[in-house]
Amino acid sequence: MSSPQDSRYDLDAIREEIFTLGTATLYEASGMDCLLSPALRPAWPGAALVARALPVTTAAGDNLALHLAIEQARPGEALVVDAQQADHGYWGEVLTAFAQARGVVGLVILGGVRDVRDIAARRFPVFSTSIALAGTSKDDAGEIGAPMRCGHAVIRRGDVIVADHDGVISIPDDAFATVVSRSRERAEQETEYMRQLEDGASSVTLYGFDRDGRR
């Protein structure tokens, strides 16, 4: 697998295309168990993210690891945080400003965030499992950069995180080019299916279903 410093795929060059393809198409085309927890939702309407992952694990109710991770992050990375799904405000406007100054481009967190209005004003993409006001301690340095599991996916540093209104997925860096190619083919096929449906075709026929429940 290629390293984050020596990636074989330029995300900046195709970011808008990835947003257009969307997580649903990428997921279906990948053939992988790459779904993160469905409890993750955008913190503000329209948030979307394509970035390389920096995995972070922190103790419940403690956000010291997030401060440390921002210091260690490479520009263009997003933090993907296992905060034990605790309903604390691990992240707010201060960490958003710090992250943006360091080139961190987004956050995916199994845990809570707050200052949502300010985060939205900064257009910083955040996906969390809750909006929560409760404060945090700063005693546990956690773990930064080690592989972590979230939902069906194992996330490693440099994997590609894609998040939008449908959900969040993580695609291994060395598989991403193939997934993008398959996603383009799938999108073209679906465009043709939509044309045929609008002309009166049946989805049962298009997808080759048997009417007795077999395919």
Automatic annotation (TrEMBL):
Signal peptide segment: none
Gene3D superfamilies hit by this protein: Ribonuclease E inhibitor RraA/RraA-like (3.50.30.40)
List of residues binding substrate: 92-95, 114
EC number: 4.1.1.112, 4.1.3.17
Keyword entries, A-Z: Magnesium, Metal-binding
Record Pfam families: RraA-like
UniProt catalytic activity: 4-hydroxy-4-methyl-2-oxoglutarate = 2 pyruvate; oxaloacetate + H(+) = pyruvate + CO2
Family annotation (InterPro entries): RraA/RraA-like, RraA/RraA-like_sf
GO molecular function: 4-hydroxy-4-methyl-2-oxoglutarate aldolase activity; metal ion binding; oxaloacetate decarboxylase activity
Annotated positions binding Mg(2+): 115
Function according to Swiss-Prot or TrEMBL: Catalyzes the aldol cleavage of 4-hydroxy-4-methyl-2-oxoglutarate (HMG) into 2 molecules of pyruvate. Also contains a secondary oxaloacetate (OAA) decarboxylase activity due to the common pyruvate enolate transition state formed following C-C bond cleavage in the retro-aldol and decarboxylation reactions.
Subunit structure: Homotrimer.
Family that this chain belongs to: Belongs to the class II aldolase/RraA-like family.
PANTHER family, alphabetized: 4-HYDROXY-4-METHYL-2-OXOGLUTARATE ALDOLASE 3-RELATED, BLR3842 PROTEIN
Protein name: Putative 4-hydroxy-4-methyl-2-oxoglutarate aldolase
